[in-house]
Amino acid sequence: MNDLLPLIADKYNYWIYIVLMMLGLYAMIGKNNLVKKIIGMNIFQTSIILFYVSIAYKKGGTLPIIMGDAHGGGHAAVHAADYINPLPHCLMLTAIVVSVATLGVALALAIKIYRQYGTLEEDDINHQIRMQAGQ
Amino acid sequence: MEMLYSAKPLAAILVSFFVVPIIFSSRSENVREAWTFVAAILKFAIVLSMLPFVLKGGQIAYTLVEVLPGLAIEFKVDAFGMLFALVSSSLWIVTSMYSIGYMRSLNEHGQTRYYACFALSLSATLGVAFAGNLFTLYLFYEMLSFATYPLVTHHQDQEARSSGRKYITYILGASIGLVLPAMLVIYSQTGTFEFAPQGFMNGHFSQPATAVLLLMFVFGFAKAGVMPFHSWLPAAMVAPTPVSALLHAVAVVKVGVFCVARVITGVFGTKMLASIGLGTLVCYVASFTIIVSSMIALSQDGLKRRLAFSTIGQLSYIILGIALLSPSGMTGGMLHIAMHAFGKITLFFCAGAIFAASGIKNVSQMVGIGRRMPYTMTAFLLGSLSVIGLPPLGGFISKWNLVIGTLESGQIFFLFVLLASSLMNAAYFLPISYKAFFCTDEEAMFEKKVDEVPTWCLIPLCMTATCSVIFFFYPQPFLQLAKLAVATIIGAPMP
Amino acid sequence: MTQHFPALLIIIPLLSALLVSAMGWIDRRWCFPLAVASLAGALAVSIGLAAHVMAAGPIVYKMAGWRPPIGIVYVIDYLNAPVLVVILAVALLNLISAKVWIEKDFEDKMGAYLGLYLLFLSGMVGIVATGDAFNLYVLLEIGSLTGYALIGLGKERAPLSSLNYLFMGTIGASFYLLGIGYIYIATGTLNMADIALLVPQLEGSGTLFLALIICMAGLFVKMALFPLHGWLPNAYSNAPSASAGLIAPLTTKVMIYAMVRVGLTVFTPAFTFARPLLSEAIVWLAIAAIVSGSLLALMQRRLSRMFTYIIVAEVGYMVGGFWLGNKAGVTGATLHIINDAAMTLTLFMAVSAIIWKLGSDKFEDLQGLFGKMPFTMIGFVIAALAVIGIPPTCGFFSKWYLITGGINAGQWGFVAALLFSSLVNAVLFFRIFEIAFFEPFAEGHGHHDHGPVFNEAPVTMVAPLLIAALSLIALGLYTGDIVTKLIQLALPAGIA
Fold it and tell me: Nearest chain B Cα to C328, which residue?
């Protein structure tokens, strides 16, 4: 138990991402309302973005913007250890775009479902489907 | 041995394949049937043209495509395959003739489909006969299962549906469930499928494993009707009689025993089986089938069902003969493929003729029918004598060889099996003929007036009956082919 | 020109997707020919690439000229060249076959629908062609998002099924993304070839092992491996016919390709198959998939639903074969990607033609179908034979490799499951044949004067169907060439 606390404290950002991920997963599986599920999905995706941002971080690192003159003298000043890793950030730009697009598609489908069934509660929708099948 | 590379085997197989679209597209009955005849005669001619070369001890080989190393679609015409091809292709001509008479007189529906599937079935049968390796054999075996399904269920009524279900369940279930895994295991160990005169499994498997594999093949080729995988055959008798005649006395069932025989000789190898005593195991399985099916046949009243159980027994004769592993036994077994085919097809033709002319299916209602249909019933008598194995009919020759075979291999028990079964054959066949001709006027159920079936039906059954007689006096080329095949297997000089 | 083929492969569908959707505003009549032309062009490019790979070996294409491992590369090698051809051929055939459906269902949304169709393909093609692990994720999402839309455009339960698919799909893709994160932690690179170079030095790395497990778990969700298959049957069977014929053959197969790619050329076989317990567990999962997929298929009363459960079982074939970890197994799994795509396409095109004519694919409505739609049924029968695994159709040969792999690995459970599934497939399809062969009025002695009325689907449906059906036999007969000239060269040396 003594080891665990420092482990949590030292790597709290990773723990937060895991907690957020589980929250999102719970919402996607456990919630009855479709929009709540969609929100859960978004939390789930965001937690992974946090994870990527975390792995890029270095203690004492700074923004990876290289100062230097316009003639390429900057390369002399590069000490990779001083800068946080820019690549995961770039990747996450793409991932954010993907998650926004997913959200868009999901909401569009939710609208279509709402028009069709008049509700977004999954229980009610399933009930209606069963009624239709029964007829 | 002389080898010839030629596409003739492929041509023989494809002739009937190509006629299928023509049959489908033709509007008139006559055109359709004319094309069936053209295909049948062409097929027979191609097979015949290969005969002299095979009789000289040569083999004709052709590889269509090698899919994977060792997994090729490959044809090889040897004496045994030739024997079978000769039987099935010649009887197709006769059956086509009979079909015309039968189907037209009963005014059956779907005749186009009927002729097309028939042609396909014959393609598959020749494919099995000419298969050069186990893979090709399996391929055409399965093709035959599918091509015959619409024939078996031709009537498309409730009974046909349940029989068709039984048929396909047994045949396909056994082949996928037993033959395919056995093939895979053999291939994974030996890496080849090529039939060899002494098999290719020697030394790859332990004795118990060999026994299991052998039984998987014997039962898995369910078309051979070895008990307990036999009950599809009586069920399949719902098919129109020409189908029962050609397919369930010749093509389908003989494909089953042919496959078993090929596997025993070409995959396992007779020497290997003899050395570990597995031939006897198969002999016992076959003997059980022979005795039990004969007993069941005794109790059947439906003529076609009686014939079906008789067929089950006779098929096991062939397997018994091969599994005796002695030269005469194998000769007898192979010869029985031909002799039984001609005898049994006659019987089926007669059963169909009786049904077409009078609508009667049961033996108990056939008292005195010889007065009305003398030619048919004479042919029936000849056919049953041949199947029982009495001289002067072809069946005697093959049975004689089988008997010699049991003595050669010193397994007297199987001699008694053969004799007991022959007695039972006589007991379930002869009363039919006796009652048909010899009965008092009160007993007779028919007028004395001769009222035969259409000539199209009558000619074929007279032909096959005559052939059965001829083969007693002149069993060539079948005897020669069987002896050649056995000589190749045991490695003796050409006879 | 040839050197830019890998880029064209993805650019053609991508640009024409935009063009087609723009054309939807201008003149709808041009949308369909344009889509067909672009797919045909992409197909030609993929064939050219495959020929080039077979003649001169793999191609590495640097996108925008950036050198790897900094830039993104597209790699066309022995593994994905045939898969690319199959994907584009499937898409083209299905598009032609679905012409009447698209005209009927999406008359006023023609441009949008075809745009999605092409965009979906650029995603699929990209997944297969890319040599960058993160790029694969992006393309995966392009393919998936368009897939959700293609399914969600359907009627009745389609939007709901699509949304459920979207939830599962997002979980799967996110897991894959997470796995890539761990790979990046362990190796510091995203280029597949670069990762593979570094993996041998990280043999005992827990991070990398975690990455493998998370990546695979994500892909398993996306390919609907039992018990994560729940989304698939509803999504595929409720989709519009035009979409089902595209998505059902492609999505799961492309995911399995991704699994093979990640397992073989990212983690390398030595690392992927290093833990027998993991491999064993996944094979047993696959066995469960095969058995339960087959049994669930037996319980269905609609053709398209039955097919979806067959897909679940087929996924088990490929996953199990791959995780056997031996040469025959992996060859069989890879071969089955190609064969199963063709088989599933044929089945779904047949069912789409049947629904077009009958308005339903319920079993009881199929009576007398052999007489009504003989050509469709010929295609259907050939596809059925391939699924059952009857030679000389292609299904036999991939199953052959898979079973051989099982025997060589001593994994008898897998062998038994494959044989069991063949038997169940035989039952499944013969039940259909029986219904379709017998006619509703066949009580009594059945001497009908005239059978069911000939009523075949339009030629644009039947022709692609028959081409696909014949290709099943052709693929079977050319198995030897596909295996020896492509797949076996694709296997890394680490596989025994």
Answer: B188
